Amino acid sequence: MTSQPDTRSSSNAADTHATAFPWRAVSAGWLLLILVTLPAVQLTGPSAGSLAPVELMRSLLFLLGIYSPWLLATPGLWRLCARWPLGMGSDARAAGKLLAAGIGIIPALSLMGWMFGYYLSQLALPRALPDSWLHAVVATSLFALPTYVAVIGIGQALTYIRRYRRRGELLAQAREQALRARLNHHFLFNALNAIGALGYRDAERADAALAQLGELLRNLLQSEPFVALREEVAQTMAFIELQRLLQQQPVQVQLQASADAWDARVPSLLLQPLIENAVRFASTSDTDEATINLQFESRDGLLHLQIRNPLGDAAGGMGIGLQASRERLQAIYGERATLHAQCDGAHFQVNIQLPLASGEPAA
């Protein structure tokens, strides 16, 4: 018996991952801005046009000091973007709040940056604090307005990307859950109809099939979204046992699997709808025993699953299970997974390729 997944812990892990601040990338961005700004400062500063190493070092240290408070304040500015995001139906209010915050933030960061940069630059060649330092701070604040807008713009873009990505993850989860529920309802409807018909012919077998169906449903309700292939095969064999009770013709299974394929994680209820189709096809064949061949192996970083069965009189590709399984794999894995079905003479064959992994696929 499997336990219910702890959605709270996975949600907390996702939130932690989403809020991790990329200090290296942000620091590299600010350093690039400093290097780009350095020539302009060197040409317009007190020692305009001088290429002396001391003067270059002074300008570099001054810029490092100017932008250091902005670097340290970037996480907080981006949190403001997450708190007042644009594109949520109240853009004017959010923009007004960000501009109002900037009225206090820009002068404060400019003052701290200018003072820190000035005193840091004195390590190369000491100078006294100029009389016009307050005027310089005001001018720096005005020049910092585009910097503030740029940082807020980047923060808004990142907030939108995270929101868009999370929305896509939730939509994919909702679609996968809907398709899984669709398969469950389809399976339950078919099983109950078959048991009802069997009850008129063999009440004892119908009771046994009903008990087997109850066990299957209990396992389905308690199953995790992703299980090891060995667990999925065990659930599938229980389903085949139910079909043996419902079908007049015996159903045999031949299974071949590589050792490393058993531990691969697959979506729960992956094989059952395909096996249901295989049993239906095989039961209409002219042979005395319907044999379903299952082959599972890992190769080139992919998990290969093959289901092969006699086609009989049934038309290949009929039923809800095949299309719903294809749509479900598309919702979970995107282009990384494929499902191909084809008629091969008197046999019907389904081939599935999944990314080989021991955990759930990344959202």
Characterization of the model:
By secondary structure, the protein is an alpha+beta fold. The protein folds into 2 domains: 7-167, no CATH class; 202-355, Histidine kinase-like ATPase, C-terminal domain (Heat Shock Protein 90), CATH 3.30.565. Helix content is 63%, strand content 13%. It has 9 helices and 7 strands; from the N terminus they run ααααααβαββαββαββ. The protein has helices at residues 7-19, 23-44, 53-83, 91-121, 133-201, 203-222, 229-246, 272-282, 320-333; strands at 226-228, 251-257, 265-267, 290-299, 302-310, 338-344, 347-355. The strands form 2 sheets. A 5-stranded mixed β-sheet has the order 2-4-5-7-6. Strands 1-3 form a two-stranded antiparallel ribbon. Helix 2 (23-44) crosses helix 3 (53-83), helix 3 (53-83) runs antiparallel to helix 4 (91-121) and helix 4 packs across helix 5 (133-201). The radius of gyration is 33 Å and the shape is elongated. The protein starts with 6 loop residues before the first helix and ends in an 8-residue tail after the last strand. Mean pLDDT is 77; it is low at 1-18.
Features:
two-stranded antiparallel sheet; five-stranded mixed β-sheet; 363 residues; elongated; alpha+beta; 9 helices; 13% strand; 2 domains; Heat Shock Protein 90; disordered N terminus
Our measurement of the CA-to-CA distance between the termini, rounded to an integer number of angstroms, reads 26 Å
Q: Supply Rg.
A: 33 Å
Number of strands: 7
Largest sheet: 5 strands, mixed
Please give the share of residues in helix: 55-70%
Any low-confidence stretches, pLDDT <50, length ≥5? 1-18
- Please tell me the overall pLDDT: 77
Strand content: 5-15%
General form: elongated
Q: What is the count of structural domains?
A: 2
Order the strands across the largest sheet as they lie in space.
Answer: 2-4-5-7-6
Helix and strand run: HHHHHHEHEEHEEHEE
User: What structural class do helix, strand and pairing data support?
Assistant: alpha+beta
Helical stretch count? 9
